[in-house]
Amino acid sequence: xxxxxxxxxxxxxxxxxxxxxxxxxxxxxxxxxxxxxxxxxxxxxxxxxxxxxxxxxxxxxxxxxxxxxxxxxxxxxxxxxxxxxxxxxxxxxxxxxxxxxxxxxxxxxxxxxxxxxxxxxxxxxxxxxxxxxxxxxxxxxxxxxxxxxxxxxxxxxxxxxxxxxxxxxxxxxxxxxxxxxxxxxxxxxxxxxxxxxxxxxxxxxxxxxxxxxxxxxxxxxxxxxxxxxxxxxxxxxxxxxxxxxxxxxxxxxxxxxxxxxxx
Length: 263
Description:
Elements: E1 3-4, H1 14-18, E2 23-33, E3 41-46, E4 68-71, H2 72-86, E5 91-96, H3 103-115, E6 120-124, H4 131-138, E7 142-146, H5 152-159, H6 164-176, E8 179-186, H7 194-204, E9 210-217, H8 223-228, E10 231-232, H9 243-253, E11 260-262
Parallel strand pairs: 1-10, 3-5, 5-6, 6-7, 7-8, 8-9, 9-11
Antiparallel strand pairs: 2-3, 2-4
């Protein structure tokens, strides 16, 4: 029987969060990143995720047992070498899959970087919200929160899990009055309907700490990885959104947000 990304089992992440506190398990690092937060950033793509998004372009990063280890000191050294490039807006972004699986480590790393005057940012699906995550968020200057879908059933079809935790995460960040950007992947036939986009805008229109929403058009750049991993790609035949579709999404969301970015 053929397998899809939804068949990749969830794994015990307790050990991942509580292993060596001075080391992150990562997939890769991008220097001079400009797509994951404001300014120029060092982007750390971590390993491991509990979502199984059908459009995931890096399915090789889902397994928490894969990847490599990056010592904090090496990250700090990279940041120091890049300090002059960051300016007032740049800094570090922990991105990739879900850094919440390494929340204690992320908190500790951010504490170190804050002592040295660096800006911190996370890109997350908001899957987890507990006391450890809340403590980590206290050390996070900016959250990029991925809103996969507003409809609970469609969200589960698209990611394998409910959107309940993600929306609770968003509400907590709003309550904390700390900076947040929203992100939304525009997938034809899945997340691009006018009804859904209005629902997204209506839900967040009164949030005071949402500075902008970024629209990320669906692409097929990682499809070849599914074949390499022996997985069927569930969105076979889905093409990237048209210019008209992207313009319509921008127009709708601009009714609710003061700043809409099309990536």
